[in-house]
Amino acid sequence: MTCLFRLALLFALLAWIVRPSWADSENGLIPFSRLTGDARQVVEEIVRDPTLSREIKGLKFWSRKEVYEYLLDHPDFAAAIARALGLSEYQIVRDAKFFRGADSSYWGTDARGATGHFWVVYGDEKKRIFFLEGTYNRKWLPTIFARGVMVLTFQHKADGEGSSVENDLYGYLKIENTFIALLAKLLQPIMGGAMDRKMKQTLSLGARISEEAYRDPIGFFKKLEGSPELPQQELDEFRRILCPRC
């Protein structure tokens, strides 16, 4: 969800390669035959030869399928929820000018140095693929230019305890600054632990929103009502999904 944009750009500073192989992509992780021409070209270029790549598996939390997918498919609204709850400063807005007017393209920033665009190039009932392009800029550091591909696979399961979703996340990043790309590779062993901590902190944001909405949908919605961060039309749509019988 909202966490995906920031994760891709932070690879440049906190990186430890656990490299998903190109063979994995060919065998079904990325369904290239289903991507449009523009999407296939940019995704293939990055995944074939990334500067850095990583995979994290088994990220599980409580979630209703309909709520999870609504937030996943409305990252601008999910970011607004996080701001309304005081959980983050993410800003994400639709930007149809990015990638030839694609409806699923966005501009975003984490308010901590990462700024850029991302485009949902593929989606089905168990997967979303994002292309990202942007910069990371902090004081005393050179501006980092990067492009990335994030692949999120997810599966909902319901049992006697409730409904949960398990996620696997794969990331490929291509740093455009030659020197910084070399430096990132050299620092892989040192920065591995820091990268793990940062990714877990960021991913916990999506889990926290999803689980709070799952455990107490009425109370959760009451926290959102009247927030200037949330557009009324989407808030009404979300209420119907969050609590159909309310």
Q: What does this 3D model show about the protein?
A:
The protein has one domain: Alpha-D-Glucose-1,6-Bisphosphate, Chain A, domain 4 (2-Layer Sandwich). Helices cover 42% and strands 29% of the residues. It has nine helices and seven strands, in the order αααβααββββββαααα. The protein has a seven-stranded antiparallel β-sheet with strand order 1-7-6-5-4-3-2. β4 and β5 form a beta hairpin. α1 packs antiparallel against α7 and α7 crosses α8.
Record the SSE blueprint.
Blueprint: H1 3-10, H2 22-29, H3 37-48, E1 52-62, H4 65-73, H5 75-84, E2 91-94, E3 105-109, E4 114-124, E5 127-136, E6 144-159, E7 162-175, H6 178-186, H7 188-215, H8 217-224, H9 232-242
Antiparallel strand pairs: 1-7, 2-3, 3-4, 4-5, 5-6, 6-7
Q: Indicate the structural class.
A: alpha+beta
What order do the helices and strands follow? HHHEHHEEEEEEHHHH
CATH architecture: 2-Layer Sandwich
Helix content: 40-55%
Determine and state the CATH class: Alpha Beta
In summary, what is this structure?
With 246 residues, the chain is an alpha+beta fold. The protein has nine helices and seven strands.
